[in-house]
Amino acid sequence: MGRRRNVRLVTFGAVLLALLVYVWGGYAEGWQWTGLSDAVTLWDWLEALALPVAVGMVPLLLRHRGRMHARHKRVVVLVLLAFSALVAAGYLVPLPWTGFTGNTLWDWLSLALLPLVIATSTLWPPPERLNGPHLTVVCIWAVAAVLVVIAGYTVPWAWTGFTGNTAWDWVKLLLLPVLLPTLVLPRLVGYFEASVAVDRRDHPRR
Questions:
Q1: Parent domain of 128
Q2: For residue 96, what are the CA distances in angstroms to 42, 51, 93, 192?
Q3: How many CB atoms lie within 10 A of CB 95?
Q4: CB-CB contact of 103 with 43 (8 Å)
Q5: 80 and 7 belong to one structural domain
Q6: If you ran DSSP here, which 8-state letter would residue 67 be given?
Q7: Element of type H or E holding 85
Q8: Domain check: are 109 and 165 in the same one?
Q9: 59, 76, 101, 124, 149 from 119: Cα distances, Å
Q10: Domain co-membership, 144 together with 177
Q11: Where are the alpha helices (DSSP H) in 28-67?
């Protein structure tokens, strides 16, 4: 077990070092083969990495979903607050290196909705276990979202970026984020938990 852990740590360190060299060479040294320059902003990195990172987190979250403690939740909240502050600064200061200026709510939904659903839906209760408080929160968010969408089209609010998007655009945007937590991941979680139970039964710890 210790050897496997050391191999994982060495592999992780090597990948991290290679990434740092890649970023440093592209931004600081101007290595053209990297494709990196001042024109490649944080927004571009988010577009490239948000979905792969979210998908990569699923096995980890499935394995440890029952071990989430209050401190883990506090860390997640702090990270979200820090990122929200960065987004606000990116628009208000503005910070050109973020690349946030000019991107509307529609752009953010297209970028982050699916990765966010994938990264968090393993922690959601399955539909059959939803209780009153859960349904209340869902209803409040649904009503607020509908009101924002209506205002985005009718006022119109330019910052939403909704104007010009058709029903088909909304279907493409929402189909996977709705199907994953309601149909796909609950069954995946059940299969994973059953597999872990069988493995523990067949290979009990000594």
A1: 41-202
A2: 9, 23, 9, 44
A3: 16
A4: yes
A5: no
A6: G
A7: helix 70-92
A8: yes
A9: 10, 12, 26, 10, 24
A10: yes
A11: 42-64
Tens digit of pLDDT at every position of the chain (206 positions):
567 777 878 888 999 999 999 999 999 999 999 999 989 999 999 999 999 988 888 777 777 666 667 777 788 889 889 999 999 999 999 899 999 999 999 999 999 998 888 887 766 766 666 677 777 887 898 899 999 999 999 998 999 999 999 999 999 999 888 877 766 666 666 666 666 555 555 555 54
Tell me which residue has tokens 């053209």. 32
User: What SS3 state is found at 61?
Assistant: helix
Report the domain count for the chain.
2
DSSP annotation string for 109-154: HHHHHHHHHHHHGGGSPPGGG--HHHHHHHHHHHHHHHHHHHHHHH
Give the CA distances from residue 32 to residues 2, 38, 192, 200, in Å, rounded to whole numbers and listed in that order: 41, 12, 44, 51
